[in-house]
Amino acid sequence: MLKKIIILFSAFLFLIHFMFTAIYLAPFNPVKAKYGFIVNAYMEPLFSQNWKLFAPNPASSNNQFLVRAQFSNGETTEWTNLTSFMIEKNYKNRFTPYNRLVRIQRGAFMSLYQKDDVTRKLSQEVEERDLNKEEYDYILDNEMTKEQEENGINILNRYAQSYVSSLYPEKDITRTQIVIRETKATPFSEQDNPNFENERTIHEFDWKEFETVSSVF
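The structure corresponding to this sequence follows.
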């Protein structure tokens, strides 16, 4: 009897996961417009899917996350590249939790800088028709978007603090700070130009008071 219950419960969970994944990957539609925020909250960051390696919208930038910490004695560490560490660990063995953990950074970045389908389509319409953006600010910068951004920042901070606590287990950490270093991809027309300089942008976030979190690294 217990075995049957476990099988039925597992099948139910699989069905729910499959349904959320199907909605998440489907083209924009009324169901996705209505329940997109709930679906995204479930899928990101651990189950997110990204196909931007392919046309027509390939990835246009390379993002790296850096973190530094400050101790109770006032000492501040150098910037540590969290992205390189995670990618290296993932490449060494794809069948470890690092394969999922490395997605947290991307999911958080998407929450910060990528809008939902409805907002994105409206933004495109405003730009293509050269409309007055101020008239649509109340829609483009809505409470859902702000909540999504706050969630992305919170994920990044906790993720970074978990990593810092593993780097300095004996230190009394008081606060941490993160930055995102974004490097634009090299255009195809400049592939053979050795003097081409990629555009770089630094997204700097405020210092965050350290909260005790479990180290997963």
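The two ends are 39 Å apart (CA to CA).
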